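User: My collaborator sent over this chain with a note saying "see what the structure looks like." That's all I know about it. Can you take a look?
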Amino acid sequence: MQQRISALRHSSMAKVIGIGFLVLLMLIPMSMTRGVIVDRMGVSMDAKRDIMRSWGGEQLIGGPVLVVPYKRTRVISFDHRDQRDDRYGERIEEQGELYLLPERLEIDATLVPEIRKRGIHGVPVYTANTIMSGVFAAPDTTGMGFDDAQFDWTRAFFALPVSDARAIRNSPSININGEVAKFEAGGASIAGFPPQIMALAGNLLDEQSRNAPLSFSIDLDFGGTGRLKYLPFGDTTVVNVRSSWPSPSFVGAHLPETREINEQGFLATWRVSSLGRALPSRWTSDDVDSLATVNAAFGVDFFVPIGPYQLTDRATKYAVLFIGLTFVAYFLFEVLLKLKLHALQYLLVGFANTLFYLLLLSLAEHVGFAWSYLVSAAGSTSLVAAYSSSILGSWRRASLVVAMLTGLYGFLYLTLNAENYAMLAGSIGLWMILGLVMYLTRGIDWYRWGAPDEHIAADNESAAQEELFTGKRT
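Assistant: Without extra context I'll predict from the sequence alone. Here is the result:
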């Protein structure tokens, strides 16, 4: 029994299985570290939402919509089966609203970006200085099926969609052919659209104005966070956006017709026709698909490179590779130099590797990812190097471990910053490492490795006797 236990202790397969178990055991502190990362990401998102509530959220802006109330009388004839005269019927009075979009809409916006912080968490915000201008064609209701309607022009108004009107910085007004009307809070006057502000148009639309094109202009300044999108509410919509933000991301249903991006900022121009939206130029209350309308929006997102939390979380996915390869290196020292290392020594080295990720997270919140990565890698490597010099018997042997860890940390940093080639780099790196391990262990007799000397001697004696016996038989 004692011989079996001794053989098991010195078995190469038992050693490999034990190392594999230790690698799996190290996943426990790694999962705890990832839990800390998720918690800190939640705190960061809370800070972002707090800033959005105070400054203004992601903005969705549309052009002005002319809304004209109307009423009409319809006569519903009695059923012929009723013996009364079908020339008579029930008169029903209908009320509704006619919505008219501009024939041409031009938007010129200058976005002034800045970083707002809550504690250590920063969020990019902007102030949009916007000028809208354009033309409404002379109102035309022909072909809509209610030419007999009576329009109440005294109650007409302009509705301007602004998803977060709390962030408006000025007192906006609409100028119609030289006459001005101020916008006020309006809520959801047009069902299915983003919230709107309203300007009464009754005093601006006399009979002469209604029979000619209406030129308009609006000066609107508002704040927002992260993203700004526009709705193509003109039969022809032209949007020009400029900003000093150096890394924009263009989003939505339409990409810019032209764009210029450099270190000083960007300038982008969109040109969208009415064919690029699921919305007619005029409609009544029940004739519009609001979801399709909102999906036609386009604009710009203040792109922020992947933050420290996302990078740290991505780095933890390579933890098994780091721990496993470090354990393999120590195992090779045992095999090639006939050293004996205890499981506890493996665990201490594994804990030094996992500490790297916690250091990386805590430092990245204050000094940025690059510097925190350098300091954390140096700290973890120095721990392993000092300990390795003792358990491996010399600094020369420890330097091999340091070289390996330095290469691994460098490889990981390049992989994290080259997302498009991360999988390719990882696959090639693993192929090279596996090839190196196979090369170093190509001449090892795994059946005899780790066996006691008396077992080896007994095996050699048995082999000699078998050879002698074979020779006699020959």
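A starting point for your reply to your collaborator: Residues 2-43+309-455 form one domain.
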